[in-house]
């Protein structure tokens, strides 16, 4: 089990640890509900050093990445980033990631921890000799700070200004005189940042966030927050066995180019099942792998489920046959010996998140 550079900090804070993506990660500190509330109403800080980061540059980088990634790359501006998939030839998702355009011919790819090793091999096998590829994961650390109070906290920590930074844009800044990347992205739905820095800088950054009022938060709160937003988690909503078209992220799939697996992703029959949000009756949560039925007929399978602290009832994501995916459709989740009734609803479940808001309203 690997440890992030912040492992000792988690232990000193009394975190309950759990394995995730090959790392020993904090599940919770003071409680999932408290940590969740901090992200929605104040500020929560997450250790995300386990994520993988690759650099791709050279005269072949743009051309090669256009073929490897499902999203359009050429029109990503320098200083902007974009969500996309890497697919295999059958249209299954090798991983989901964010691509950052650092310069005209330089990119950074941020991938999931559990798949990082395989991702690098996949990319390396599919780029030309004109692309320079480097795995910078071991020398890159990252913390996420999200919530309405996050902009003021981060603005007070950085040497340069934050004002004007838009959603899914990033900028180089400095912290304690060292260069960092501050990105208006995250996995909670709330306004905030992913901050990339050198490994020897991250403990100071973490402690500074907490010292200025951010609540340390673990995987439990992070999962509830992302589920309320309907965000997919690799290994649950996204897998190599599941066609990317079924996830419903049409903005992450280009129809203007060919990419690995595009013929399978774009074919009409690909979306025979679609990812749907289900609002359940009561607090009992559905679990990954639970069956879904409609009118007594088999309809699909749950990929993620949890009680929603923000809404006061349980929610779930499930792949269901497309004929059962319309908002308002009644569905039943078979969870062990229990039947949990609910209905399809439009995503996100939680409608009041601040991620896309004008940053200047929070500075």
Q: Gist?
A:
The chain has helices spanning 7-12, 32-41, 61-68, 116-126, 150-157, 202-211, 219-228, 262-265, and strands spanning 16-20, 23-28, 44-47, 52-57, 81-87, 93-103, 106-111, 132-135, 140-146, 170-175, 178-183, 192-198, 215-216, 273-280, 291-294, 297-308, 313-321, 330-335, 338-345. With 363 residues, the chain is α+β, with helices and mostly antiparallel strands. It has two domains: 1-267, Gyrase A, domain 2; 272-347, Beta Barrel (Elongation Factor Tu (Ef-tu), domain 3), CATH 2.40.30.
Proportion of beta-strand residues: 25-35%
CATH architecture of the largest domain: 2-Layer Sandwich
Helix content: 10-25%
User: Which structural category do the helix and sheet elements fall into?
Assistant: alpha+beta
Output the strand order for the largest sheet: 10-11-12-9-3-13
User: Might you state the CATH topology name of the largest domain?
Assistant: Gyrase A, domain 2
Q: How are the SSEs ordered, and which strands pair?
A:
Layout: H1 7-12, E1 16-20, E2 23-28, H2 32-41, E3 44-47, E4 52-57, H3 61-68, E5 81-87, E6 93-103, E7 106-111, H4 116-126, E8 132-135, E9 140-146, H5 150-157, E10 170-175, E11 178-183, E12 192-198, H6 202-211, E13 215-216, H7 219-228, H8 262-265, E14 273-280, E15 291-294, E16 297-308, E17 313-321, E18 330-335, E19 338-345
Parallel strand pairs: 3-13
Antiparallel strand pairs: 1-2, 3-9, 4-7, 4-8, 5-6, 6-7, 9-12, 10-11, 11-12, 14-17, 14-19, 15-16, 15-18, 16-17, 18-19
